[in-house]
């Protein structure tokens, strides 16, 4: 298992001699370099020992068809302890759920964090809940389990207080509670509890819900008492604030006292959930950059938030559609992660690990959900999306934040066959730097992208600007930006393909018009020539036309391709009976373009000519094409399929 334990020096130090009730191989000295998620841990079931009956699953104290608050259903295969519900699947079998009151449930969650590379979680403690004995009993039990499991699996953990619904004596409840936690779990003895997260040399506590203008019963006086009390006790503080905290507008109270409270804290974390979707996120990029600049000027750390989607129909919108902010197969989540990391974020907060009420959970969720009823219509995992997609994306972001280029979760390769010391296959990437800049950019990124996939020497990638010699030793030739132009290279490529060779071509590699003068290549591509293109490059909604092909079987029904230039062909590739179109530009995009405007028509963007072992992919213009997780999966699928059809046999079955 490739474990993500080589972290930034500033973030963690090895603690081989940790003393006390906990044993972790990592001491978490700083939030910097980490990707952390919020952990609700607030669900209960009858029989779990908490005595709370159904809690946070239920509506009106009932958890049965027509009565619930959750929109997502957890994928339950790995939980050792489950509790049967009144819900049934289509085949009549009962549906069950876990309870985090069981230590075994928390253990599964922290094991996933380790396997996928998520650094850890903030344990939510709701003041309104711990103010009563049953709530405190529950959250204390969850915290006990989490502290033990965090150290067991070398994950970071910290306390987060949610002030929502806080009573008048809330500050006193909170400060008394943290005193007890600090003593029980050795928060001020880092050797005794290495997994507890520190910041600026002090144990970190988060205070969430400061400055919101949604008519909360508490105000800045109560918040200041809490922050001052925590600081006086020797804690560092992260403050959770509304989206528009910096400008004191929209969701934020127009009171500069908020800025004064932020300046008392070590980290500021804005709440973005529900504020945007994949198409409106660009409107918030400037806000995030200015937030970062403000925090930097004030010498305060900034933790931008990313979330995978949002849905709370069963809680608040009964009878209305269940997805308010679609996940789009992970592309929405990936877009946020990419932007924050590319903008220089030093830490990330993910909302949330296990929140299925509001549909923001990144843990494993189910595609098979119970039978729907008014008030209990569940949102299934999208077709073609693995249940661990969002854990994988979070782990990859954590790896990138630490300067690593890739991260392979343990579960993704267990169990697996391995080719041993013999590479499974050999590929040649043929490209040119004598083309327009945008096509050069894509070629350079292609070299990096495919080279990363050779990790562990599972296969060999050669890179060349020329075609020469015997090409038969290559299982596939990848052409990211150009096809051969000299007679000698064209002849070599024709012979290679006619003798069972494999080809994966992108964008400019397929370009041909009347001046190209290569009839064989036109027929090879499906009998088509370039007709026109959209301009300038822009994102486009791509429809996946079939899930019956290995290239697209695990993709969502549609996704937003990053900015590129889309080609239209004449005649339409679809008119060739040997061509199978796998994806096309959605009609919803039109009219498309600002200079070269296209008002409609058929735009196939991924297809195969079944007379050959080949895939053509239209995307490949500029430096954004590898910025989307779904599209990257498409590229990998295409490579794998072309190679798997080799006349030498499928190398992945060896």
Short characterization:
This protein is an alpha/beta fold. It is built from 14 helices and 25 strands.
At the first level of CATH, what is the class of the largest domain? Answer: Alpha Beta
Distance between the termini: 20 Å
Poorly predicted tracts of residues: 1-20, 405-420
Proportion of strand residues: 15-25%
Structural class: alpha/beta
What's the main sheet like? 10 strands, mixed
Helix segment count? 14
Rough outline? elongated
Report on this structure.
This protein is α/β, with parallel strands linked by helices and 654 residues long. The chain folds into 2 domains: 21-411, TIM Barrel, CATH 3.20.20.80; 418-653, 3-Layer(aba) Sandwich (Rossmann fold). It contains 14 helices and 25 strands. It has helices at residues 103-116, 127-130, 133-152, 170-184, 220-232, 257-263, 285-297, 313-316, 331-342, 389-401, 437-452, 487-498, 519-525, 629-644, and strands at residues 12-14, 26-28, 35-39, 83-88, 94-97, 120-126, 156-162, 198-199, 202-208, 236-241, 267-270, 301-302, 305-306, 348-350, 426-430, 460-464, 476-479, 502-506, 529-533, 538-544, 558-564, 567-570, 579-585, 604-609, 613-617. Strands 3, 6, 7, 8, 9, 10, 11, 12, 13 and 14 form a 10-stranded mixed β-sheet that branches. A hairpin with a 2-residue loop joins strand 8 (198-199) and strand 9. Helix 1 (103-116) packs across helix 3, helix 4 runs parallel beside helix 5 (220-232) and helix 9 runs parallel beside helix 10 (389-401). The chain is elongated. The chain starts with 11 loop residues before the first strand and ends in a 10-residue tail after the last helix.
């Amino acid at each position: 298992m490739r474990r993500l334990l080589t972290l930034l020096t500033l973030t963690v130090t090895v603690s081989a001699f940790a003393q006390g009730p906990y044993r972790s191989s990592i001491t978490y000295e700083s939030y910097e370099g980490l990707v952390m998620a919020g952990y609700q841990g607030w669900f209960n079931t009858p029989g779990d020992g908490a005595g709370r009956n159904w809690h946070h699953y239920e509506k009106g104290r009932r958890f049965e068809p027509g009565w619930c608050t959750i929109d997502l259903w957890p994928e339950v295969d790995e939980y050792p302890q489950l509790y049967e519900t009144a819900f049934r699947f289509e085949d009549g079998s009962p549906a069950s759920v876990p309870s985090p009151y069981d230590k075994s449930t928390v253990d599964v969650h922290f094991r996933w964090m380790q396997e996928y590379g998520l650094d850890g979680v903030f344990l939510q403690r709701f003041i309104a809940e711990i103010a009563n004995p049953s709530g405190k009993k529950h959250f204390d039990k969850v915290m006990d389990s989490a502290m033990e499991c965090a150290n067991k699996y070398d994950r970071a953990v910290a306390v987060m207080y949610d002030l929502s619904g806080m009573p008048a004596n809330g500050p006193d409840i909170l400060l008394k509670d943290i005193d007890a936690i600090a003593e029980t779990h050795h928060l001020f003895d880092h050797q005794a509890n290495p997994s507890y997260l520190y910041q600026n040399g002090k144990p970190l506590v988060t205070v969430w819900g400061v400055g919101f203008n949604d008519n909360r019963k508490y105000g800045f006086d109560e918040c200041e008492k809490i922050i001052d009390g925590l600081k006086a006790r020797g804690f560092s503080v992260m403050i959770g604030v509304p989206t528009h905290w910096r400008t004191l507008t929209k969701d934020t109270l127009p009171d500069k006292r908020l800025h004064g409270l932020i300046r008392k804290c070590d980290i500021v974390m804005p709440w973005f959930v529900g504020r945007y979707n994949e198409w409106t996120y660009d409107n918030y990029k400037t806000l995030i950059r200015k937030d970062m600049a403000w925090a930097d000027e004030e010498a305060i750390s900034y933790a931008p938030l990313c979330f995978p989607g949002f849905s709370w129909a069963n809680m608040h919108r009964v009878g209305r559609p269940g997805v308010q902010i679609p996940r789009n197969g992970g592309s929405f989540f990936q877009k946020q992660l990419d932007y924050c990391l590319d903008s220089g974020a030093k830490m990330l907060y993910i909302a949330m690990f296990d929140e299925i009420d509001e549909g923001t959970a990144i843990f494993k969720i189910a595609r098979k959900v119970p039978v729907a009823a008014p008030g209990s219509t569940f949102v299934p995992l999208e077709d073609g999306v693995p249940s661990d997609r969002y854990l994988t994306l979070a782990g990859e972001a954590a790896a990138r934040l630490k300067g690593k280029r890739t991260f392979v979760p343990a579960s993704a390769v267990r169990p697996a066959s391995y080719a041993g010391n013999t590479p499974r296959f050999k590929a040649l990437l043929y490209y040119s730097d004598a083309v327009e800049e945008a096509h050069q950019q894509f070629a350079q990124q292609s070299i990096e992208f495919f080279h990363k996939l050779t990790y562990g020497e599972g296969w060999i990638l050669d890179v060349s600007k020329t075609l020469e010699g015997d090409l038969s030793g290559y299982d596939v030739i990848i052409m990211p930006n150009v096809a051969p132009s000299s007679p000698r290279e064209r002849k070599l490529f024709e012979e290679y393909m006619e003798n069972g060779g494999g080809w994966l071509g992108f964008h400019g590699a397929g370009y041909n018009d009347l001046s190209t003068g290569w009839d064989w290549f036109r027929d090879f591509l499906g009998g088509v020539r370039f007709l026109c293109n959209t301009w300038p490059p822009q994102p486009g909604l791509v429809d996946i036309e079939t899930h019956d092909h290995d290239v697209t079987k695990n993709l969502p029904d549609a996704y937003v391709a990053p900015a590129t230039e889309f080609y239209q062909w004449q005649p339409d590739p679809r008119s060739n009976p040997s061509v199978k179109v796998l994806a096309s530009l959605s009609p919803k995009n039109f009219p498309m373009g600002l200079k070269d405007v296209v008002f409609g028509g058929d735009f196939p963007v991924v297809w195969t000519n079944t007379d050959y072992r080949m895939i053509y992919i239209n995307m490949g213009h500029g430096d954004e094409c590898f910025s989307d997780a779904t599209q990257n999966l498409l590229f990998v699928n295409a490579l794998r399929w072309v190679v798997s059809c080799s006349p030498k046999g499928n190398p992945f079955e060896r």
